[in-house]
Write a sequence for this structure.
């Protein structure tokens, strides 16, 4: 007899919340809101990091910052600490040429998910995160360093 289906543990980077509060409606916003609705119902187990909180707090527009915090509160994700182990792994992604040094924060998002044994990274960052090169490179490094492979997708790929 099969047990209950495993709920995917998903790391949400900051731009997921940015798309959720976007002024201009579009397919990405709809896909994001649908995904976040599933997180709210715990169809997925959402995680963020202290880095996401820092990036939201650094939003210069007060109204936008409040809307981001509100969306974050509705989703109620678990918050992961930023640990040295994640910084080391992020630097390894950069050293291997998977993510450029100029995008170190993106590498840190990915590394936090990796060191915390999450299943999926959810992002709209098509430049540095949601790319075939990044998926292959991250999983190669993760395997070499003793971490499990992790899927990297947009919100529309999960529901």
């Amino acid at each position: 007899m099969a047990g209950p289906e495993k709920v995917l543990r998903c790391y949400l980077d900051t731009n997921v919340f940015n798309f959720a509060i976007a002024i201009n409606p579009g397919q990405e916003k709809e896909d994001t809101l649908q995904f976040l609705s599933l997180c709210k119902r715990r169809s997925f187990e959402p995680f963020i990091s202290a880095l996401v909180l820092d990036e939201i707090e650094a939003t210069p527009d007060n109204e936008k910052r409040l809307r981001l915090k509100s969306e974050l509160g509705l989703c109620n994700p678990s918050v992961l600490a930023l640990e040295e182990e994640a910084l080391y792994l992020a630097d390894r992604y950069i050293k291997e040429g998977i993510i450029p040094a100029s995008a170190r924060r993106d590498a840190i998002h990915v590394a936090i998910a990796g060191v915390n044994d999450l299943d999926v990274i959810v992002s709209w960052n098509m430049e540095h995160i949601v790319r075939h090169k990044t998926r292959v490179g991250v999983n190669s490094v993760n395997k070499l360093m003793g971490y499990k492979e992790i899927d990297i997708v947009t919100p529309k790929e999960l529901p």
Q: What stands out?
A: The two ends are 26 Å apart (CA to CA). The first strand starts at residue 9 and ends at 12. Strands lie at 9-12, 45-49, 78-80, 120-122, 151-153.
